[in-house]
Amino acid sequence: MEELRNENKLEIKDKNKIVKLINAQDYLEEYLSENYPGEEKNEITEIYIYDKNLEGDLRIENFPNLKTLNCQNNYLTNVEVINCPDITYFDVGINLLKNFDFSSLISPEKLIFLNVGSNDFEEKDIDFLEKFINLEELYLDSIVEWKVKQGIRNRFSGSLSPLEKLAKLKRVNISNTDIYSGLEYLSDSIEWLGCDAIDDESNEKNEGKKREEVEELNINRKSLKGHLDLTDFVNLKGLHCAENELTEITISPLAKEKIKVLFLERNNHLGEGLHLSYFSEFINLETLRITATSFSGSLEFLKDLTKLKELSIGSTNIDFGLEFLPESVENLDTDSESYPNPLNPNPQIIKIREQLAPCDLRKLKILDISNIDIENGLDFLPENVKEIYCSDKEGSESGMRTFLKREQVNTQGSLKLEGFDGLEELNCYDNYLTDIDFANIKNPEKLKKLYLYNNNFLKSELTLFNRFKNLEELVITSNYLNQNYKEGIANRFMGSLNLLKDLTKLRRLDIENTDISEGLEYLPDSVENFYCEAGDD
Hints:
It is found in: Membrane. It comes from Paraglomus brasilianum. This is 7880_t:CDS:1. The protein is mainly β. It contains 7 helices and 36 strands. A 7-stranded parallel β-sheet has the order 4-6-8-9-10-12-14, with no helix packed on it. The radius of gyration is 30 Å and the shape is elongated.
């Protein structure tokens, strides 16, 4: 077929070989005449034209009994399939396709093998695969390394949930795509799943750079465990550290203002060392993926991320606060029945917001709701409220409140808790508190979670906590990276851990950078996570 080679075509480099490309359609006609001489199209069941240096457009038309089409490992930029209703094996892998009309496979239930891997598909989800109900092998990957390093790769994205009903699927490869969730939807028939990542050009560009010069860091699937310290990477704009075993990540305040992309998914214990409030300082964040982490609580902490466009929170314990998400969010992936219409807030909430719009509470500093029947909502007060009076001498239902948070609002001095007799969780970290009047809590056995870190508590022993027999989480640390700590403002709890020995339900204890110096042997066996490091002074 030498006469088909176009000597005027541009020569390109592929794995250190210089190849001359061949017009795909011309080659097909020659292939058919050589391999099926005298046969009609309706007699042809197989076409194998793989690894032939074919380029350009390929049109496969009117082969009513064609079962196998294999044109893998060429340089095809477009493939059309017209009136081929019997295809069961379709392989166009390792080409340069940016798109393909999958609806042209007009008998999707017959397809058992589909390979579109190592092409250049534009960003799209994989809903188009739902109709291929008898598929056994599926390849969407980008595993040809030299192509990936040139930016040529498939950008399939979103969730694997469209594969939920493909009950015969045995082999799937999504390596180096942008599909990051939905593994739980795969059928039990799966025998092999490829989801590796090739270190992309961003890491290659980092070679020889100092840490402060790195703008993008890809450390997905590196078997990282525990605490990851990235404080020296002050110019980070993108961080990819999915599928590790991280419990905590420390990022420079300078980088927090620059980072646009955070891929943290499938770090199963990350929410145990961090709270959702951790993300509130990433003011330019556009993409946040925390699927399959242990984050919990409310999305309210993301309300000020006004540039956030994509958020993935599937398989977490985040269970409320959708109404606080900024309007910038375009794509929300929850993988949860709890949020059937995640981007459509409750119409009642919208109505309430409209009614309250004329009320300007931005100047409110002192609020007195003592002796009235307000039962909840204290945690939604604006940050400008510095003093709250809510004593309940008449015993109204406000005393049944179970959750109180006043974190990061510069609350100073002593905090009074009179009237909060049903309190189960207290968050008041990142303030300037020197004391909390726990004596006024009439039902201390109800308190389960207590977060007091980054305050200014005076020197005191841990006696004030031993009343809380059912406490599960106690965090009283002072983070050495916190600005308060750098200014000498820190919690000064001291003495021995012996005073916590009767807290037999305590699972998490964080006393980093306090003055507690002894008693480790007295900790109850229930403790699973214990943090006691000292920061640099």
